[in-house]
């Protein structure tokens, strides 16, 4: 038995190998298509990308035809290089560089030689294409923007690089891919599926028809259309209000978490990143280290939140039972929390929760914060309890929204202070600046907008998202999952009453809009930077958060204006205008609108520009106002409200 076992195994294995080889070489032709086969030319049919609409069905992004010149390096023969370069308006050095790059990718497979020809260039090349062996035209579509705003939301499309090709076998050299914004987030949905045709060639390298009668050919599938949650008119208006200013605006529908507007300033016309000049324009925007038009401040900028953070300080204190609505503290224009340590305040007198909110009393909230931390036997325990409450509002973490970029902000815990103060006993007094949003807490505008949306909902939120509908598809279920905070619902009502009187009696009393009950909170955040290695204080940031109406709110919004002085000077008016625009679809506060549209903070920003030549070049690329910008002081009266 042993004598026949080994020969039998060898015989069976041999038969299996021969059978498999016969199948692969004679019956199965698919391997021929996966190799650099001289007799088969692969031609791709690129589908149109899906169209992008706003929440109401307004078309935002469509497609336009484009033509790429493709090259198969091994087929390039008897080429009149001078004529070829003259026709395409390129130098011989550029020609050689492009051919060399194509050869590196593959001598036998097609790759893009020159992308995005316009119709005139395409027609001129097509007339004499027969003279240029190895070159052919590949038709595809590029984006055609129907609007001149929303660049940070849309993103752009660009050619794939080698690392993308290595990671994702769907893409080949010269293919286009979405970058930034929804183009990146929803790339697989928007791109569709490209078709493939295999063309048989004879020994003279002439096309003789489809390989195997088209058995392996596939048809291109157009990308799916999507509707964004964006309100196009509100987005456009927000970008207009932010001309000659830097910062961000995020507006959310509280009941759904849908993003109504996502403004970053400065911005740019998305159309400049389409066509032959795309690379040049992108490079210009990318290297602007001053205005940073490619930097989405609404998602990426981490700011000290300032006085809007007092909302959370009060809610946590109510939940922890260290105060109630009647708990009072006396303010003498500030709060002395340690020998030689004094927190200034513009308020004075007796403060309870209600007037503490609408007057933005630092003394009240510093006292409340210390009572919260001191409730526990040790400060580290108290800080962690406080921090966990804040996490339930989505702070200190990536929020899970459907845009490809973002920062998680910073939310201190006991570990934070153990690192900051090693071997030293810290207490609530050491970190009391957290109470008024001036401590170690950092928040992005979208986090702050989500926070005020959560307050508007009386204690819950939905993950902010930009997708509303996918044609013949479904949005992720996580966007319809309710997140409930650790704060009981009953504690939100007294806080909201105080926020309502911010507009009626407090720091935003001159910003109200007739017919709309707005609840809001002003904020001023200190702003420091390093210049030549030294820490320098710059003009404070202007911050405002609000929601409206008070009952059954339709919009929650956060506005940051960098170097904008105090909250009611820039961020407050912009907030009121955005709310009125969304709810009424028109503006009655023409005084505020004129001041915001014509007002400029450019003089403030120019104080610290070290390269005015670069700034001049960049200003040609980014959006400029429709009307001439007025100087910062033009038409601006000093607010009689407290500067907070």
From TrEMBL:
EC number, as in UniProt: 3.4.16.4
GO MF: penicillin binding; peptidoglycan L,D-transpeptidase activity; serine-type D-Ala-D-Ala carboxypeptidase activity
Penicillin-binding protein transpeptidase domain: residues covered: 247-575
Gene3D superfamilies named among the record's database cross-references: DD-peptidase/beta-lactamase superfamily, Penicillin-binding protein 2a (Domain 2), Penicillin-binding protein 2a, domain 3
Span of domain Penicillin-binding protein dimerisation: 46-209
Keyword vocabulary terms for this entry: Carboxypeptidase, Cell inner membrane, Cell membrane, Cell shape, Cell wall biogenesis/degradation, Hydrolase, Membrane, Peptidoglycan synthesis, Protease, Transmembrane, Transmembrane helix
Subcellular location as annotated: Cell membrane; Membrane
A Gene Ontology term for the protein's cellular component: plasma membrane
UniProt key word Lipid metabolism: no
A Pfam family this chain is assigned to: Transpeptidase
GO biological process terms held by the UniProt record: cell wall organization; peptidoglycan biosynthetic process; proteolysis; regulation of cell shape
Membrane topology: Single-pass membrane protein
Domain of life: Bacteria
Key word Transmembrane present: yes
Name of this protein: Penicillin-binding protein 2
């Amino acid at each position: 038995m042993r004598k026949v076992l080994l020969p039998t195994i060898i015989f069976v294995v041999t038969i299996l190998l021969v059978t498999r080889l016969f199948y692969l070489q004679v019956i199965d032709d698919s391997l021929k298509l996966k190799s650099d086969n001289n007799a088969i030319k692969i031609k791709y049919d690129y589908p149109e990308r899906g169209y992008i609409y706003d929440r109401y069905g307004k078309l935002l992004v469509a497609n336009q035809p484009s033509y790429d010149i493709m090259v198969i390096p091994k087929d390039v023969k008897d080429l009149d290089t001078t004529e070829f370069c003259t026709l395409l308006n390129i130098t011989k050095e550029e020609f050689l560089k492009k051919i060399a790059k194509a050869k590196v990718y593959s001598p036998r497979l097609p790759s893009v030689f020159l992308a995005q020809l316009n119709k005139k260039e395409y027609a001129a090349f097509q007339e004499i294409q027969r003279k240029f062996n190895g070159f052919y035209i590949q038709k595809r579509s590029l984006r055609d923007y129907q609007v001149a705003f929303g660049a940070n939301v849309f993103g752009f499309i660009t050619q794939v690089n080698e690392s993308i090709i290595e990671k994702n076998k769907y893409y080949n050299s010269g293919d286009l891919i979405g970058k930034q914004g929804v183009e990146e987030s929803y790339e697989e949905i928007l791109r569709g599926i490209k078709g493939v045709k295999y063309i048989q060639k004879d020994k003279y390298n002439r096309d003789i028809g489809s390989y195997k009668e088209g058995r392996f050919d596939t048809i291109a599938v157009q990308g799916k259309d999507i509707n964004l949650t964006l309100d196009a008119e509100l987005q456009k208006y927000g970008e207009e209000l932010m001309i000659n200013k830097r910062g961000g605006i995020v507006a959310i529908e509280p009941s759904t978490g849908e993003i109504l507007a996502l403004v970053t300033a400065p911005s740019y016309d998305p159309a400049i990143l389409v066509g032959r000049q795309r690379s040049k324009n992108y490079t210009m925007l990318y290297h602007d280290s001053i205005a940073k038009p490619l930097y989405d401040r609404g998602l990426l900028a981490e700011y000290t939140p300032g006085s809007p953070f007092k909302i959370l300080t009060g809610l946590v204190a109510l939940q922890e039972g260290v105060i109630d609505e009647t708990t009072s503290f006396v303010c003498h224009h500030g709060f002395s929390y340690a020998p030689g340590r004094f927190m200034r305040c513009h308020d004075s007198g007796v403060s309870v929760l209600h007037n503490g909110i609408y007057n933005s009393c630092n003394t009240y909230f510093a006292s409340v914060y210390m009572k919260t931390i001191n409730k526990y036997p040790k400060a580290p325990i108290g800080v962690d309890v406080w921090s966990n409450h804040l996490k339930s509002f989505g702070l200190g973490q990536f929020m899970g929204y459907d845009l490809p970029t973002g920062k998680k902000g910073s939310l201190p815990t006991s570990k934070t202070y153990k690192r900051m103060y090693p071997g030293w006993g810290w207490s609530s007094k050491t970190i009391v600046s957290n109470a008024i949003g001036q401590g170690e807490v950092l928040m992005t505008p979208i986090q702050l907008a989500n926070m005020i949306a959560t307050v508007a909902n009386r204690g819950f939120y939905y993950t902010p998202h930009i997708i509303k509908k996918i044609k013949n598809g479904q949005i992720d279920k996580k966007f319809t999952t309710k997140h409930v905070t650790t704060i009981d619902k009953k504690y939100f009502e007294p806080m909201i009453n105080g926020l309502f009187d911010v507009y009626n009696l407090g720091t935003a009393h001159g910003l109200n809009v007739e017919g709309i009950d707005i609840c809001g909170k002003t904020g001023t955040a200190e702003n420091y930077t390093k210049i030549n290695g030294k820490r320098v204080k710059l003009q404070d940031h202007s911050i405002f958060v609000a929601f409206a109406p008070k009952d059954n709110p339709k919009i929650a919004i956060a506005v940051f204006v960098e170097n904008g002085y105090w909250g009611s000077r820039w961020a407050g008016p912009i907030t009121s205008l955005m709310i009125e625009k969304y709810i009424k679809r028109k503006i009655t506060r023409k005084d505020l609108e004129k001041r915001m549209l014509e007002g400029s903070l450019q003089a403030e920003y120019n104080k610290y520009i070290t390269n005015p030549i670069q700034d001049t070049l960049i200003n040609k690329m980014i959006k400029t106002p429709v009307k001439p910008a007025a100087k910062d002081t033009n038409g601006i009266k000093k607010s009689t409200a407290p500067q907070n």
